[in-house]
Amino acid sequence: MAASRALLNCRFKRPEFARKVACLGCLSRFFKTKSESLVYSEHGDPKNVLSVRKVEANNFGDRSVLLHMLAAPINPADINQIQGTYGIKPPLPAVGGNEGVGEVTEVGSEVKSLRSGDQVVLRADLSLGSWRRHLVVTEDQVLKIPAGLPVDAAATVSVNPCTAFRMLKDFEELEPGSDAVIQNGANSGVGQAVIQLAAAWGLNTVNIVRDRPDFEDLKSQLVGLGANYVVTEEELKSSEMKKTMKNMKPPKLALNCVGGKSSLVLFRYLGTKGTMVTYGGMSRQPVTVPTGSLIFSDVKVRGFWMSKWSKEHQKDVTRLAMLEEVCNMVREGKLKAPPCTKHSFENFKTAISDAMKSYSKTKQLLILNDD
């Protein structure tokens, strides 16, 4: 406020200018802010179509919130959106990224729930474009989170953990201490969140990953998060694992983010009247349901899209309670962010390239603040 007054006193003494600026402390109402952003004007390979541009922010008004973005992850959905294959396609040109954490630096006079210094996450279902340094939003477009979360956890808390949370809660009544969940893509961001939430809630997990040279290291990492079993698809077919599966209660819930042959493996072990939920399709192959699973096991086949769920619930009690519980689990050490590699804004091409690698060990995180 003092800086704003000083600026007016020394540079803008004309009465007509003073009349235009009703609030001395809100210069951003009069001046439009341009923010460095990662923009694409056509769909295609993100490495080729993304570029750094200065984008004019929305006008700041009484209901506005000015954010200084701190960090934003590069999720598979972000890549697909730029490629033009995702379910949401913002008008072009568009700023990339959907998820991220920012700090409130200014609020309009009619904003009630936020104040300067608060940390918020963007509502990822709105495709606001998180890969930028500054952003003007309204308070209904963001969700406040507790202060003090590690930046990697804060930037990634609203999509992957919440996707895992909803799938574990909404499709089957799972009994702690007895019920099990089986999933493929267990090393993904959602998969790691499933492992940790299930462990915290007393559920067993069977976790399938693709065969890879560093499998033992990955297995150790996932077991450290709370996984009961970590196997490749080939190992799942072994006599030893078949015996293990026969001796445990058949999973009530199967979570599929791969499709194709990998989803067939899930049906083989899913219990009678169980549910398989598909939330991704990394193989780009269709999900084929075995006839026997439908007729003899009476399984249910469902789909889940976090963006759609978020749009339907926006800022209702269910969503706010979920986010609060997830953030509390992070603060208590029960839920860790996936391992992240941090990239400066200027190094975005490396970040994008690493995010598109088949066997990336970490999530790529863009650090957007200047500090």
UniProtKB/TrEMBL annotation:
Catalytic class of the enzyme: oxidoreductase
Positions of the Enoyl reductase (ER) domain: 44-368
Database matches in SUPFAM superfamilies: GroES-like, NAD(P)-binding Rossmann-fold domains
Localization per Swiss-Prot or TrEMBL: Mitochondrion
Entry annotated with the keyword Nuclease: no
Domain of life: Eukaryota
Gene3D superfamilies, per the entry: Medium-chain alcohol dehydrogenases, catalytic domain (3.90.180.10), NAD(P)-binding Rossmann-like Domain (3.40.50.720)
The keyword Transcription regulation appears for this protein: no
Main location as per UniProt: mitochondrion
Enzyme Commission designation: 1.3.1.104
Keywords linked to the UniProt accession: Fatty acid biosynthesis, Fatty acid metabolism, Lipid biosynthesis, Lipid metabolism, Mitochondrion, NADP, Oxidoreductase, Transit peptide
Reaction catalyzed: a 2,3-saturated acyl-[ACP] + NADP(+) = a (2E)-enoyl-[ACP] + NADPH + H(+)
Pfam families the record matches: ADH_N (PF08240), ADH_zinc_N (PF00107)
InterPro entries for the chain: ADH-like_C, ADH-like_N, ER, GroES-like_sf, Mito_Enoyl-ACP_Reductase, NAD(P)-bd_dom_sf
Family membership noted in the UniProt record: Belongs to the zinc-containing alcohol dehydrogenase family. Quinone oxidoreductase subfamily.
Protein name according to UniProt: Enoyl-[acyl-carrier-protein] reductase, mitochondrial
Organism: Porites evermanni
